[in-house]
Amino acid sequence: MVTRVQMFSNESEFKNMETMVKLLGLPNSCDLDKGLRTREFFKRVGGGWALKTLEEFEDFPNFRSALTHLYFERCPSETELVPHDAIFLQYYMKNPKELTECLDLAESMLYLEESDRITAAEIMEHDFIMILMSKEKARKTFAVIQQKDR
């Protein structure tokens, strides 16, 4: 999302879920218990949950899978994303602290559990927002100086 680098394939919803679980681990049981589509992707194993196999997922009766394939066929390809990636990478290679803070803020905002997520007040105090605000202040100051010089 932030880096404009495609993390997940356009192959299928299941493959994306499988990749997320490999990267991030299983969501906690409380979140899975509340999930609207949990039983589509996960199965109960003992007292917990496990990701279904592709075969188990395909056997699950739902109409979304057929629609999902249509959606994924229409997603932009990686080559369509390349120009944006190049611009993004050029900027952040020159500003690595900004990238680090941006990713930190994004991660803080994406926790599933509300109590773990950053609050609006904390967002406004986050280093990434401070960097952006100082840049905006510098731009405005520069604009005022330019106006006076005319």
What does this structure look like?
With about 150 residues, the chain is mostly helical. It folds into 2 domains: about 70 residues, no CATH class; about 70 residues, no CATH class. The protein has 9 helices and 2 strands, in the order αααββαααααα. It has a two-stranded antiparallel ribbon. β1 and β2 form a beta hairpin. α7 packs across α9. The longest helix is centred in the last third of the chain and has 23 residues. About 5% of the residues have low confidence. InterPro entries: Kinase-like_dom_sf.
Major sheet description: 2 strands, antiparallel
Count the helices. How many?
Answer: 9
First-residue to last-residue Cα separation: 42 Å
Number of domains: 2
Strand residue percentage: 5-15%
Q: Return the structural class.
A: mainly alpha
Query: What would the average pLDDT be, to the nearest integer?
Result: 77
Radius of gyration: 21 Å
* Shape annotation: elongated
Quantity of strands, as a count: 2
What is the helix fraction of residues, given as a range?
55-70%
Order of helices and strands: HHHEEHHHHHH
Strand order of the largest sheet: 1-2
Low-confidence stretches: 69-74
Structure at a glance:
This protein has 150 residues and is mainly alpha-helical. It has helices spanning 13-24, 29-34, 38-41, 54-59, 64-74, 78-94, 96-109, 120-125, 127-149, and strands at residues 42-45, 48-51.
